[in-house]
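Mods, move this if it's the wrong board.
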Amino acid sequence: MTAPDSTSAPSRRRHRIIVLLVTPVVALFGGAWYVMYGWPERYDSEPPPEMLRRIAAHNQDAYRVLDLGPVLKPQSGPEDPAKHHSSNSASTGECYPDGLEAMEDEPLDGVYNIHHSWTAVRKDGSGVRVAFGRLKHHLTANGWEVDWSESINKQNFSVIADKDGYQLSIGWDADFKEVTGLGRSPCARFPDRSQERAYRPADHYAVPDQQLTPPDLVPSRRR
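Not the wrong board. Structure tokens:
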């Protein structure tokens, strides 16, 4: 009868220890890979005009409460930041993934959000701070998470609000004497490739075939 190998038991123990140490590491990296590449994030499938309607309704509510400007008629497509005048425009934007996948810093394919921006030029800053305080109170009372910020000299200030993925950033610039607003919708998925091609051209400098036109923004006319 052959004597048992005295080295086989320690060898098996070392093998089991290695397996116990390696398995969690493999599982960790495997899970991270799945989160990054194999677990797609879920977005509602909505056409851009519908997402614009939703974010424009929030901007309209804020513009009504502020009551600082005229009726803002829309223009198609994104506004020109170099132009200094009252405006009201919208466009699609890119969405980026959350979590570990965000490290790739690549926009999500077939996913977009809506940017709705507006500007109201004023003659002076009378009543502006009071109006912004009124807006902050209104948004907070309606369930928005609101942050207030202002410059060191307290001449410029803004309200930044977030609710259910919708974001509003509205500010006063004392030098330009203008109130500016930017609303961003949550990310959504284009219902089909034809809409993606229509509303988001491959060339970022090109004009989309289908341009987004927001509704009028109307003040409450307290004055």
